[in-house]
Amino acid sequence: MMRTLLLQLSRQHWLREWMQNSSAAGRFTSRFVAGRDLSQALDACTRLRNEGILATLDRLGENVYSAPEAGVSLEAYLKGLSGIADRGLGGTVSVKLTQLGLDLSEALCRDNVRQMAERAFQFGTQVEIDMEASEYVDRTLAIVRHQHAATRNVRAVIQAYLYRSESDVDQLCREGIPVRLCKGAYKEEATVAFPTKREVDASYVSLMRKLLMDGTYPAIASHHEAILREAIAFSRQRGLSPDSFEFQMLYGIRRDLQRELVREGFRLRLYVPYGDAWYPYFMRRLAERPANVWFVVRNLLRA
Ligand SMILES: Cc1cc2nc3c(=O)[nH]c(=O)nc-3n(C[C@H](O)[C@H](O)[C@H](O)COP(=O)(O)OP(=O)(O)OC[C@H]3O[C@@H](n4cnc5c(N)ncnc54)[C@H](O)[C@@H]3O)c2cc1C
Asked: What residue ranges define each of the domains in the chain, with the CATH number in brackets?
């Protein structure tokens, strides 16, 4: 109930405008959002690097409504890539294709991805292409495939809650395209996605094993402790090197587990979001764990 309500609120434009312009925002978003600008985000990545944690930088934002707006996103990402290289952070960037104009024109979006991937290639790093709602999956994977053929430095994201994901994972493994596996953060109908958490978790574990065995440097993106322990046990049973995959988590979530993975010698990358357009991202984090709402309310009352 609460989850559905929060996901519905995440799509309300008036609330988004009001919240994003609120002077109190920083007080309750700082746990999940690394900063309002690139330099604050790079500072956060540098702190993580000093703790042995890699980063993937996400400039917050979703659907843009004009080619110049998509160009602004692209420029911000190109600057992000330069910042990562200048500071020697060894990080990647993560981008949503609707930020690069997917809703306006596939050709425009494809060209923006090309420019990002080519810049990342110059710096010896990768572009991770986030996955959005199910209506975008085909177009997103088509652009990932197209760019992989040219520069081989893009990562696809697969959501375990979608029925189609098993066949997508099989295909991406055959093509040698790296995959980040997550559970999925959008509100989907039971016609396309498993409706219960138990089914999503089972799908996640099955896809994770497949990727660990047959994937190209897969990223296991989850905070689900039992699943992470299963990944570790499975990789040890099969004699996989800890360098052959990485764990990924979101900035500010399960910091205890993050430290434990690093202590145990696993590679960990955090998804580090920054920027003014924090509202939909923030609301999805609340929806994943409605107890976070109380964290926000407590901070507001304290202010
Ligand atoms: C690096 C990364 C990239 C991602 N990229 C995408 C993407 O491109 N597309 C997409 O649809 N989704 C993406 N997601 C989000 C993902 O789909 C899930 O919604 C999210 O990770 C929660 O699922 P979980 O695997 O952590 O398991 P869950 O079963 O939801 O949570 C397991 C445990 O993790 C902790 N936890 C989980 N979420 C929170 C939270 N918000 N606050 C506090 N504790 C929490 C709690 O202890 C919870 O019990 C990404 C997630 C990560 C980690």
From this structure: 2-13+40-302 (3.20.20.220)
